[in-house]
Specification:
By secondary structure, the chain is mainly β. It contains one helix and eleven strands. Strands 1-6-5-9-8-7-11 form a seven-stranded mixed beta barrel. A three-stranded antiparallel beta sheet has the order 4-3-10, with no helix packed on it. The protein is globular and about 35 Å long.
Length: 114
């Protein structure tokens, strides 16, 4: 299945509403303007309610979670994704190559991270 970015969010302040974006710069520490969290970037599927994820993909969360352990290219950005390891849905990602991500960008599996 082909996945793409459905929406992009930053959360500059704890417990505050999300800021929605058509595109965002992604640095090694995460999305520019986002507050530091457990992971540089968080990724979830479109069916995960009340999410605080940065990238929402146009696939169910179960399909997104199946990408755990892989390296993904999203726009100019390369992300190494892994399970959150807790009750949070989706994936956490480390940034391997910074760049720009846009709504509509395809998500491509680059390699298996293991």
């Amino acid at each position: 299945m082909t996945m793409s970015v459905r929406s992009i969010h930053t959360f500059p302040e704890r417990r505050a509403a999300a800021h929605d974006h058509d595109s965002a710069e992604v640095a090694l520490a995460g999305l520019v303007g986002d507050r530091p969290k457990k992971a540089a970037v968080s990724v979830v599927g479109h069916d995960s309610p009340h999410t605080r994820a940065n990238l929402v993909l146009d696939a169910p969360t179960a399909e997104v979670e199946a990408l755990s352990g892989h390296v993904l290219r999203v726009g100019d950005v390369v992300l190494a994704v892994e399970s959150t390891g807790n009750a949070c849905a989706g994936l956490y990602a480390a940034v391997g190559h910074p760049g720009t991500v846009r709504v509509g960008d395809a998500v491509e599996v680059v390699e298996d991270a293991s």
